[in-house]
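Bench log, entry 3. Co-assembly request; chain sequences pasted below exactly as received.
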Amino acid sequence: MAPPRTSDVLVVGGGVIGCAVAWFLAREGVAVTLLERGEIAGQASGAAAGMLAPLAEADLGTPTGRVFLRWGRHSLERFPGLVEELGESSGVDPEFRPSGLLRVAGDEAAAAVLRERAAALGEGLVWLDREEARLLEPQLSPEVAGALHSPRECHVRSPLLVRAYAQAAARHGAHIEAGAPVMALARERARVVGVETPAGRLTAEHVVLCTGSWTPSLAAGLPELPVAPVRGQIVSLDAPDPPPARILWGGSTYVVPKPDGSVVVGATEEHVGFDRRVTAEGVRSLLAEAARWVPALADASFRSAWAGLRPETPDHLPLVGPVPTVDGLLVAAGHFRNGVLLSPATGEIVRDAVLGKGWAEPAFLPERWMRPSPSAG
Ligand SMILES: Cc1cc2nc3c(=O)[nH]c(=O)nc-3n(C[C@H](O)[C@H](O)[C@H](O)COP(=O)(O)OP(=O)(O)OC[C@H]3O[C@@H](n4cnc5c(N)ncnc54)[C@H](O)[C@@H]3O)c2cc1C
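Structure output for the full assembly:
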């Protein structure tokens, strides 16, 4: 079915952010059309490990880290109710698992840093010595110095979560279209009135850019929206027997147990532009790190490897809000390492903006980067 010529809201991009935005709006009776040029969850959102881990991810030393922590906790609290509602509405099970997470220390110095983190965060984080950690997770290496147990952190299967958002949005009347590229924004003076597609112009009251790493290309000629790709490679292995019950995270590598008997091991962080290849060095480094923390993984059967492009902003907070000087245009992009986690908060903020309830988080507003471009307006 061709997309409607006009909608209340046009969402560009069918990753976790675009699909969450579509769902939160459609649930309120807003007429939404979502256009995705490739497949739904075909980019970063299909590649993600699916961790919902704000306590492990937060950079506690910066003000922006504390903003992230506030919204990460808010989103984490939403997940149990969210996945239940999405599952009922869509028939898709996002494989939500309230597993908990162990941050593992390889030596005393790393252990001291983690103990300090526990003291700063509270949140029921508990320091475990080597024996206690290995009692909880027998697959951990006997070389570890200890681990920080975070019982509240969880994970989902990211591509399934995206599909659940999209199908639940469709059940609430949203038009979701894959294989539908947006070539440009349709503008009339200082207002965006819709988008240009190969099938012609589609109009809407609001256009929301949920275009991840590709956001600057559609926003050409508008005030700057600084989002850039950071490649993450990730591998899937057969889980050892017994499988880890929790997410195990040592150094910059994590091992996430999945319900299909696999573990995913991620992820590299590489500034290589839009190159989405899986490389020999990427896979080698992940496998070496995984076996350092969980020695049995050295003997695990290899399943697959893939890569995705995280949308990074300079301060590692997303851009969620209206684009200044351009009426009718909103952006929800730049969620870097935590778009899956932050998807409920982002959907709620965009919903409230469209419904005229104002903006919930000033630190996410795109205007923090604005130097108007010469051709803007
Ligand atoms: C290896 C890896 C592991 C990760 N692990 C986690 C994790 O454990 N937890 C977590 O919370 N986050 C994780 N992330 C980060 C997370 O994947 C991203 O933050 C999130 O997916 C961003 O979602 P998005 O919808 O903004 O972007 P994307 O998923 O990239 O979606 C953007 C979409 O816009 C579409 N698009 C672009 N331009 C156009 C156009 N002109 N017309 C139509 N469509 C267009 C693209 O095709 C794409 O599908 C991970 C990322 C990677 C790469």
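The chain has a mean pLDDT of 95. Residues 96-152+229-311 form a domain with the D-Amino Acid Oxidase; Chain A, domain 2 fold (CATH 3.30.9.10).
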